[in-house]
Known about the structure:
One of its GO terms (cellular component) is exocyst. The chain is mainly α. The chain has helices at about 5-35, 45-60, 70-105, 110-120, 125-145, 155-175, 180-195, 200, 220-235, 245-270, 280-305, 310-315, 320-325. The protein folds into three domains: about 10-105, Methane Monooxygenase Hydroxylase, Chain G, domain 1 (Up-down Bundle); about 110-205; about 220-325. Mean pLDDT is about 75; it is low at about 1-10, about 200-210 and about 250-255.
Amino acid sequence: MITISSIVEALDKVQTLLLARFGKASISEMLVFVDAVIPLLKAGKLRAVLDMYICVCTASYMFTLDVFSLEAQIIFDEIRRSLGTERNKLCDAISTTVEEVRALMEDDDSWAIEFPQGGAGVHRNTRLMVGYIVSMTDALVSTRKSAPSHNTGNLHGLIDDTIKHLKDLLPRKSELCLDAGMRYLFLLNNSYFIATRDFIRGPYCGDSQHHQGLELTLECKDHMDSYLDVSWAHVISSISKSNPPGPLRRWMTNTSSLAKFESAFHQTYQAQKLWKVPDPQLKDALRRAIIERVISSYNDYLKKHPELAEHARRGNSTPAVLEEMLGQLFEG
């Protein structure tokens, strides 16, 4: 006996079969396109590879449903296998493209050239590689949302390896910089730029996490301390700690120490005035760190030797004046 439910079931099977055949035809055309494009991809086209990867993963997930029609199920299984093969090809293409980018950065001559020109700011290669990592992270998050059952371990591992490679690359390239202070400022700028990207703060979670307030990693703190040591320690050390006997000798020694301090301060300031710290929060923190070390020591010195305060005023080198100067550093 023919019932309404049996008719509906038969119609569903026919519709499912038609959908499966249409899907196979459409997917086949897409796979032909992907196969044709993959060999033509270059290092600068990573975003295009990732977009295709997302499309293939999403399409593959759409055909994971179990259907009543045996013929339709066979077609669905065939589509999934084809898409799985294509997904693996795209994973290989992504990996190859990233390796090409790494090789280009290793051999790039602009590292040494841009140190003096860029004022130790965030290098364009750092920005480029971080852009690629962000693109891979976006692709990973998008795939996990649209195709949650798919294994994205390969892409996850590639992201981790690329971050590690970039972190290892920066110290090696920084050795091309002859000025130790600029070298550590370069490492601070670039390490901070990497550390404050969302893929570092909230790996692959898919939720935007914009940092609020300054948060320095241990690595960034080390770079900042090293910069302060090589750039400003000699300025502070020029203030004599000795206290020779006799008022005249003390005055002469202290006056000489003050002159050395002023000279060392102005030389360092002029040399670094146009160095660059692009991030406003990091720039403010670094200025405050210098003020804390240099101006605090200078204030303490003048308190111990009040007879030199007038000399500092005449030379326009009071703590307030020098602090104002330090507030102008790193504008680039």
